[in-house]
Amino acid sequence: xxxxxxxxxxxxxxxxxxxxxxxxxxxxxxxxxxxxxxxxxxxxxxxxxxxxxxxxxxxxxxxxxxxxxxxxxxxxxxxxxxxxxxxxxxxxxxxxxxxxxxxxxxxxxxxxxxxxxxxxxxxxxxxxxxxxxxxxxxxxxxxxxxxxxxxxxxxxxxxxxxxxx
Amino acid sequence: xxxxxxxxxxxxxxxxxxxxxxxxxxxxxxxxxxxxxxxxxxxxxxxxxxxxxxxxxxxxxxxxxxxxxxxxxxxxxxxxxxxxxxxxxxxxxxxxxxxxxxxxxxxxxxxxxxxxxxxxxxxxxxxxxxxxxxxxxxxxxxxxxxxxxxxxxxxxxxxxxxxxx
Amino acid sequence: xxxxxxxxxxxxxxxxxxxxxxxxxxxxxxxxxxxxxxxxxxxxxxxxxxxxxxxxxxxxxxxxxxxxxxxxxxxxxxxxxxxxxxxxxxxxxxxxxxxxxxxxxxxxxxxxxxxxxxxxxxxxxxxxxxxxxxxxxxxxxxxxxxxxxxxxxxxxxxxxxxxxxxxx
Amino acid sequence: xxxxxxxxxxxxxxxxxxxxxxxxxxxxxxxxxxxxxxxxxxxxxxxxxxxxxxxxxxxxxxxxxxxxxxxxxxxxxxxxxxxxxxxxxxxxxxxxxxxxxxxxxxxxxxxxxxxxxxxxxxxxxxxxxxxxxxxxxxxxxxxxxxxxxxxxxxxxxxxxxxxxxxxx
Lengths: 165, 165, 168, 168
Ligand SMILES: Nc1ncnc2c1ncn2[C@@H]1O[C@H](COP(=O)(O)OP(=O)(O)OP(=O)(O)O)[C@@H](O)[C@H]1O
Ligand SMILES: Nc1ncnc2c1ncn2[C@@H]1O[C@H](COP(=O)(O)OP(=O)(O)OP(=O)(O)O)[C@@H](O)[C@H]1O
Ligand SMILES: [Mg+2]
Ligand SMILES: [Mg+2]
Prior knowledge:
The complex is a heterotetramer, with two copies of chain A and two copies of chain C. Chain A is α+β, with helices and mostly antiparallel strands. The longest helix of chain A has 23 residues. Chain A is 37% helix and 25% strand. In chain A, β6 and β7 form a beta hairpin. Chain A is globular, with a radius of gyration of 19 Å. By secondary structure, chain C is of the alpha+beta class. Chain C contains four helices and eight strands; from the N terminus they run βββαββββαβαα. The longest helix of chain C is centred in the N-terminal third of the chain and has 11 residues. The chains are: A alpha+beta, C alpha+beta. β6 of chain B pairs parallel with β3 of chain D. The complex binds adenosine-5'-triphosphate (2 copies) and magnesium ion (2 copies).
């Protein structure tokens, strides 16, 4: 319904305008309907201004800048329609160190209310984890859980993935 | 023309069958026409078998495995239709350390005949470079070349990008 | 409502029964390309009742059963179990008073399918209705698959409206 | 035939005249997100004569002229020059005997466009014909843009035929 779309759009837009600057360390961003008069068909534009740069449409932006805007949008929608857990598969792949650090800080903040499971190749993301699960394929084609590192130590894992004392 | 498509396809397929195992450290891969009888409309399937795993279609494979297959295909086409230079923008983004190392070895090998310009965030890729160009935006929105590291040393760069003695 | 534990057996590359025990805070899964990390995400989606094989990178649902490797034959069964902490009673209905609820799903190569809640055979709809109003599900923004950020980045304005519609 | 040198001025984020001097071996460009690395690739494509703004992430060709920042006004001109080593005589025609050939492209905000080879004003077609039979060009597999690997990965079999057609 038009009502519900408008309400949801406004709620997401509100969150996005707070999250985007926090995620990229400044600047501003907002969503804009391509057609205010046709709520059933309108598209949605993403307009952002990275810190110190000029306001622009997404197209000219860099790979990492686009990813940060998309992540801010995903988190904005997630906070409007929360779930007890959030699974992220390599969303930090295009991010440089500064952006990855801010991304991880936001995940830490949100982890107070949400259970996060994050898949990553990024060293700085691994560092903010409370528990680290290492998966390998020593035998090709067969996955195994080989280590669980809890804050402060690594617990070797026996067959079947259960911790070994 | 059908002739030319067939010849080019076969040449690329031949290269791909050599490049793929070299790139992923084993296994095998090949291209297959979806319709042998209709060379004007046929699609092309990519069938690969990572080392120790089973032969399978691309869909179930991992992000990094798919990227490696695509890179092998790109290099196969490049070698069939070579150019004096090759510009790669963050193609190593989804690769883990082992795959990145093999990718960089292949770039090094090909660099005998081809001038490579590689954009990357990956530390191991930076290590195989003969010359490293650092770009920054100290002044937001304005790019500058700030350092050129040649094998064995870093040359600071003055305004305008010219080397400073 | 947290996931306390996930058990994966015969699902995709997890030929051996593998248990992920979750604690407090942020969990991170790491490992080389192709080792099975995204398969863990697929296992969770599948365990929650995902019916579309393409959402699991497969072409038919049978694709999720371990298909063998160079040195090992295929298995005949895929199984995923998830144990939920239900301290807040968010998982309602007859389970509202239970401190933990376990859902388990099996798929046999014959095509036969089983769903169990706390060991009791149930229908798929009972699994999905268990999660009604909890925000848990296979759609929405609680599961961001590998490459999804790229899709959102490249979406045209008309495609992006879908993101809002799903949340509405 | 190597690129010896690239000069970028007023093109995208390169508000200041910037020179990349290339040596032997593999060159690597590094820096934080959004600092201008992919813009260097766009500059090379544009210098070679790219006519489609969308191939440069723009919507109109005017988008490649430095558009200003919070602290600096837009410029009125974008310019890219590339100096090629022509030791093998691959760049033919009247330039075949020259050890180096420089191509330069300018775009004014008025819409006026200039192409120069070794300082001589020429038409676009003379720039493109310079590279005929050298393998150099904006299409093909010598330039792999950010995200292109992902597109190839996700291409359907019918779309992939295009890869072979381009090379044929
Ligand atoms: N039914 C199946 N039987 C056996 N192996 C399977 C099955 N389905 C998928 N696989 C294998 O699982 C592997 C993919 O695993 P996954 O996508 O989890 O990797 P990943 O750890 O996420 O890697 P990346 O870091 O590259 O994303 C592939 O090698 C694929 O062949
Ligand atoms: N005409 C223009 N005027 C000013 N700035 C521009 C112009 N065109 C593009 N830019 C800016 O250039 C930046 C993008 O640069 P580029 O794509 O080269 O980044 P990058 O170094 O490749 O980053 P990443 O590592 O994230 O891919 C954007 O911030 C964009 O706003
Ligand atoms: Mg993965
Ligand atoms: Mg880039």
